[in-house]
User: Fold these one by one.
Assistant:
Number 1:
Amino acid sequence: MPDPAPRVISLPARYYTSHEHYERELDWFFRRMWVHVGREKDLSRRGDFKVVSPAGESLIIVREDEERVGAFSNVCRHRGTRLCAVDSGTFGSTIQCPYHAWTYALDGTLSAAPGMDRVEGFQREDYPLSRARLATWDGHMFIHMGDSPGSLATQLANRDALFRDWGMNELVVGNRIVYDVAANWKLIIHNYSECLHCPGVHPALQKLSHYLSGENEPAEPGVLGGRMRLRDGIGTLSMDGRLKRACLPGLEPEECRFVYFYAFLPNLLLSLHPDYVMTHTLWPRSVGRTEIVCEWLFHPRETAQDDFNPDDAVAFWDLTNRQDWHVCEEMQIGLGSRGYRPGPYSHREELLVEFDRLILAAERMAADDPHGREPYVPRHVTGPGNVGDNDR
Amino acid sequence: MPDPAPRVISLPARYYTSHEHYERELDWFFRRMWVHVGREKDLSRRGDFKVVSPAGESLIIVREDEERVGAFSNVCRHRGTRLCAVDSGTFGSTIQCPYHAWTYALDGTLSAAPGMDRVEGFQREDYPLSRARLATWDGHMFIHMGDSPGSLATQLANRDALFRDWGMNELVVGNRIVYDVAANWKLIIHNYSECLHCPGVHPALQKLSHYLSGENEPAEPGVLGGRMRLRDGIGTLSMDGRLKRACLPGLEPEECRFVYFYAFLPNLLLSLHPDYVMTHTLWPRSVGRTEIVCEWLFHPRETAQDDFNPDDAVAFWDLTNRQDWHVCEEMQIGLGSRGYRPGPYSHREELLVEFDRLILAAERMAADDPHGREPYVPRHVTGPGNVGDNDR
Amino acid sequence: MPDPAPRVISLPARYYTSHEHYERELDWFFRRMWVHVGREKDLSRRGDFKVVSPAGESLIIVREDEERVGAFSNVCRHRGTRLCAVDSGTFGSTIQCPYHAWTYALDGTLSAAPGMDRVEGFQREDYPLSRARLATWDGHMFIHMGDSPGSLATQLANRDALFRDWGMNELVVGNRIVYDVAANWKLIIHNYSECLHCPGVHPALQKLSHYLSGENEPAEPGVLGGRMRLRDGIGTLSMDGRLKRACLPGLEPEECRFVYFYAFLPNLLLSLHPDYVMTHTLWPRSVGRTEIVCEWLFHPRETAQDDFNPDDAVAFWDLTNRQDWHVCEEMQIGLGSRGYRPGPYSHREELLVEFDRLILAAERMAADDPHGREPYVPRHVTGPGNVGDNDR
């Protein structure tokens, strides 16, 4: 008989419904941490770009040359016009403002500024595009908008090596679906971090992997994860559970019997299957709304085949995603009712308890440093059993 | 020649346009008074339920057994998910949360909580659904969300006996229309409480009952009403004024010559005709928006007939309702203009003056008791002629 | 080689994105200045009216008699109902409230108030419609909602005589288009006040008038303008540049070689062409939204002709307008990004610098007079080069 789990209750409603709290969380988690922005392989040619919008910013992620991808503020240095109005595409050799034609090279330097020649002391080199830091891990790109970031590796809690066998660096996007979910971003992470809901919410998943087969790793600050075992005779997570393509080349046989689920705060959910990898990238849009980009990554040997077809994996997860978003939305509605009172977590929701502790720790740290000058680094926190309380 | 009426002016615009004022009114009137939620006869079988949403709450009204109808918070005690996403229906023997399958009996007790068995000190009896008080009057159900309510009879100013002859307890809903009106909830009550507007706004009504035939009863706190005489040859309020069904069995002949209009604060408008009763239930949704549920109640002997047809009454009032909502919406727009200045009430708007005084009295009482611990009971108030002033 | 222009940077983002700042600007510019409301010629017959909505007010502009056009609050003095729900039309001899039939003469006096006869001390003469001041200049009507306006001529900086040759008093509206633009009202004025953007944004305009042909007049407080020369062989601004109707009769040949562009603060943009005049009337609707009424005015000798056709002028400017609104909207989006930093104006944006100085001067004056009792009169301001700063 295992030890009893401590009784811990969920957070007060304001953490999920208050606009002010939401704005603070953007500061704590999205402006002071490395934020996932997508796959470097998507930007293969010089000038390839995508636009992402973290925490009230708009950033252009662009391949500057063979070596480098850069992240620039999508705002002209002249009078502030948005430079790029589309989500993705390929620039020629420059980025030009649609209003007065200020023109920037792909490395952000200002190369032309019509009509500024007579302005006293004006020098083009003083007005490059604002650049944000960009780093990559196994092909995943992250940006940082703060002044003094720690290393990406530190934020990943040195779990960056953990998935080397999957060779993520090589993988390419085989499909992408964008979801608009009427729920707070933290509820998405909650939902991802436990499978107690799986028997009722995901009958199809339950046939492929038993919800009690999950083993969580000890949580690291900023990294919450574990793995679930595929049932006997099941090859991967797909509509029929059969493996229709080769396992990823670096995997051990034992690794092919599990699916690994890891949440990397603040916004990357990484799901590793024997034959493909899935990422969810979370973009909080308001306290009660989150945009979620779901991408399915495959080995290039697979995508290069004439009859490559990712539908078995995509259809399974699209169904599962929608089931999850539905209960997250119902929870968001319930939390908005004055009748909500924080309730007790089950011992199968231990990662949620860890996550709530990080939220509270960030809040305490912000209270100690109201000007937000210290970079936020999630830390191990211990504390009383009850992380929430009954007030709102 | 009657005595002159004192000159009283209407309330400042903020009472109808300020979000903060609206939120306070929800406290004064909807969280500290008995609130009408509909007809008990609608929930005849065990498990029959409806969901209502007073003042930011969501409540399930459910028949627990033959004897009892209960009101429960529509929020799971586990993590706050909304339990029930539909407006009405019939539960089996339990209410189950869609997320982690916490399951409640119809009396609100928690009967199953998967995965909680190892949580220290967890006992199911500690987590029943939150219950609100529910009381009925002649078949009308009312709920109370506060801690120390007075009796429903007190709130009804002992007018509960006044309409015994109509036998409302027996009546059943023959039709229901839900309106979404872009006007403050108080303007709906204003509109209901005077017929000075009838000649211009309701030409069809004017043919059935002369607007000057109205006689108001002395207002009681929380109860504003009176009656209007049907014109000679007119049997009821309907498209052609003819009585197409029997008068309600308990009525005296004299009572069949009038229509009785009573506003029971905060949200029930009760209109009693010789052959049917109509209720409007008001649900404030924002400072400038009110949802209104209009129900037509008939004697079960009528609804049981094969050729039962409520259209004469429904069509007449649907027309009249829409005329009323239109002028209420035009008034809401006007009050939102900076050009509005409070103006003088006519002596035919005396109930509006009483109603405004209740609003002001509630405001004063709230100022005296900022923590809102005292139950609000509308009281007779006397005061200066001018209830409003010119500031905003 | 001309003198260098001082380096001046644009305003912080809050001037374009903060709701609070927007509300203050409505006070400074729309409630304390004369505001353009349209053409008097549009209201030629007794009872002709239009409804305009400046700064949270709703006003009826109505021809009272042959001599006089009046501006009245569109709100009944009884209980505040909106009097008139349509944009324009013709009243009979009265204005009647749709709710309780209070009835006003066209001069705003209350002529009937049903049911008020018994109200103590009530006198109809105490409740006329609230009147705002109205003045006209060359057929353009302006209203003023404040208590102590200066003269309209003063606000026009005595530029009222400047355009006498165009005989605007006689002109009539030949076409009207209303635009809803997702940009702050000041960005529309910025856009109108420089042609540095013309080569890239308006290729069709560039073929008719070279963007460097512009000559700005020294700015007067509240009046920013200049003129641009038509290219050789070009007769007017139209799709093909050909003059299809007579020049306005009072013009000198030299005046026919230019187009004059003048912004009269707060909300009239006046564009004078050899053969027609165009006005843009700006109606701020929120901090990020402006409704713009564009009217094309022609000589009555032209509009009286059977084959009168304004399409050449309308199509040209509708295209040019839409190009302008697009870049204004892109600028509004960019200013809403946290990545925006004020940038340097070119020496071809000198009128924008003047305009920004007026904004800052109004802000300073409001700080000195927080109760806003002094009428705001734009004044010449000198100051440091940098009108903006880097904070938000």
Number 2:
Amino acid sequence: MFTPRPIGFVSSPYKISREIPKGFGVKHEAEGSLEILPEFELGLTDIEGFSHLIVLWEFDRSGNFELIGTPPTDDRPHGVFATRSPRRPNPIGLTVVEFQRRDGPTLYVRGVDMLDRTPILDIKPYLSNVPAEKLRRGWMTEAESRKSQMS
Amino acid sequence: MFTPRPIGFVSSPYKISREIPKGFGVKHEAEGSLEILPEFELGLTDIEGFSHLIVLWEFDRSGNFELIGTPPTDDRPHGVFATRSPRRPNPIGLTVVEFQRRDGPTLYVRGVDMLDRTPILDIKPYLSNVPAEKLRRGWMTEAESRKSQMS
């Protein structure tokens, strides 16, 4: 397969994992930036018109993968491919950020949930939504409902 | 960085790139399956409840990357990070598929736009949409409007 290389690094207010808000109803509104390396800056041409970007990045500080784990949003274990766990066979994270403005190789964004200095693998324009009436969120909906009954 | 490994392979009706529908208004409704390798099957636990999945995969038959290129949806060039071009510094593709049913290590899905035998890197649950009133699609909206004026 290909050999991953960073196209840049995230600048984030979060220095350690514990600082990142987790769990249900968490709003990721932290501001940060995507600092693209000079040799890839040309690839940002025309990115200004998109309101949201998909950022793919490396979980560079997570441990070995676990096929089953208990996420912060539930007290029951689930398969890694049914969660956003950092401990994945290929440690690739995905975050949809709101794009605010560009200054040369720097993209200022809102909604970062990555650690500071996280390596960025790719940026793609966010183009379309899944029809809301067709979206089902599996165990997450059940877990939310169990938690709200407890509180 | 990490060393990518396939967690499985796509089974798709498309054998060569030319067969994949491209351009504006294209609906990806092709049916296919995600064939997960036996050693990762446990990671699919509880995936059944999600209506849509994000599939990350390798563009394993694309050439070297190009920072600027002309996509099939336009006659003007754009930066690679403002497009879904296969010729990316890290050749990672992303497809949102509609999940139909699971049979052991096989996930039957609708909406494949990958070539047959494409290596799969990761599967994540699709959890939320960007608010529709906030979504802007940059040069794609302009290109659509130019094309519709020409026809």
